[in-house]
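PROTEIN DESIGN WORKSHEET
SECTION A - STRUCTURE
LENGTH: 157
TOKENS:
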């Protein structure tokens, strides 16, 4: 179970769970999530370009990522790393923000687990709790597009 999550209080309709298997070693998939030089290659839906503005990879460390959409629209996500267990798990509390760093959405908890699976990596993404089913579904689309990009990137590394 994710740090800080509670299945009794998480309404299932506002929780996002995605599982993917990547044809890459667990250490590399973990690094793709934690090393800014890798992260900027795939983070964000297709057509987006990302920059890591801050990444203090330690429990309590801050992160901030800027994503620019294909039409020039800007999106920032920021928060704090809650738990880092290399190469097994990342837990981050975060929210969307404006250009000045002011939160624009409720905070939620993102837990990513990395498991060895037949020479590949099974990644499980758990994000909760969203303010609405619509927000959850929008994130599902964004994450699925990002994870497609991650698979493509890992094939080149």
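SECTION B - SEQUENCE
RESIDUE ASSIGNMENT:
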């Amino acid at each position: 179970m994710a740090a800080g999550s509670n299945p009794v209080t998480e309404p299932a309709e506002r929780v996002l769970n995605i599982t993917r298997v990547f044809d890459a070693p667990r250490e590399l998939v973990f690094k793709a999530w934690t090393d800014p030089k890798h992260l900027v290659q795939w983070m964000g839906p297709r057509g987006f370009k990302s920059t890591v503005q801050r990444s203090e990879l330690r429990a309590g460390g801050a992160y901030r990522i800027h994503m620019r959409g294909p039409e020039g629209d800007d999106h920032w996500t920021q928060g704090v790393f809650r738990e880092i267990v290399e190469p097994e798990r990342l837990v981050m509390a975060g929210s969307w923000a404006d250009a000045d760093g002011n939160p624009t959405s409720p905070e939620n908890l993102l837990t990513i687990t990395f498991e060895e699976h037949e020479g590949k990596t099974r990644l499980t993404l758990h994000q909760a709790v969203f303010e609405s089913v619509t927000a959850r579904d929008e994130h599902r689309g964004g994450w699925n597009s990002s994870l497609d990009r991650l698979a493509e990137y890992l094939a080149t590394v």
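SECTION C - NOTES
Residues 1-7 have pLDDT under 50 and may be disordered.
Strands lie at 16-22, 49-55, 62-68, 74-85, 89-97, 108-117, 120-128.
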